[in-house]
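Hi team,

Filling in the usual template for the complex we talked about on Friday. All components are listed, including any nucleic acid strands or ligand strings, so the model treats them as one assembly.

SUBMITTER: L.P.
PURPOSE: interface mapping
COMPONENTS: two
RESIDUES: 230
SEQUENCES:
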Amino acid sequence: AQKVTQAQTEISVVEKEDVTLDCVYETRDTTYYLFWYKQPPSGELVFLIRRNSFDEQNEISGRYSWNFQKSTSSFNFTITASQVVDSAVYFCALGDYNNNDMRFGAGTRLTVKP
Amino acid sequence: NAGVTQTPKFQVLKTGQSMTLQCAQDMNHEYMSWYRQDPGMGLRLIHYSVGAGITDQGEVPNGYNVSRSTTEDFPLRLLSAAPSQTSVYFCASSYWDPGRANTEAFFGQGTRLTVV
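RESULT (copied from the run log):
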């Protein structure tokens, strides 16, 4: 069965601190997709990144970076020099290869204090 | 370009009432889906569709019906509302290509439903 675990329910940091959000997944598939979405206080879901299971290269986008490790079934998300605007709930999701279904983790609420 | 539009944004129902949550997208996406978001549980898939005339069940389909008569619209019907269906509902659409599965999903703004 597919499962995503985001063990950190809430994280609070002070502005400019670095913060890592953990994501551990379970799947029997050899081909799958991993996603991160951001849900700011306004409630919409914003796509951040999509990664397929054959691409373990880490990715950096501005202050955001992602570390994908198949050996530990993890897809962690790091925000460098956090800002107040980064305050949101962040969801990690596992996608099926055969369709567009996604299995979401429970989310991590990040609060960045000024 | 409106993207994915959900209506209404808020709704209060009495137990036993029925209603339809509307979802429309203007991106010509084949794939559309409905999720519900509950505290501490993330988003869970209710129903999905890979094209007009084709629908299938997701993880939590009981109590909900869907239909897909056009590419643009994917309404979600609550047959007889129950308090357990109090949730935030999200509609999503994405490009469907079996050779390039699981593309980015675009989400609507959500519908906050309360069943009393």
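MY TAKE: DSSP finds no helices and eleven strands in chain B. Chain B has a mean pLDDT of 92.

Thanks, L.
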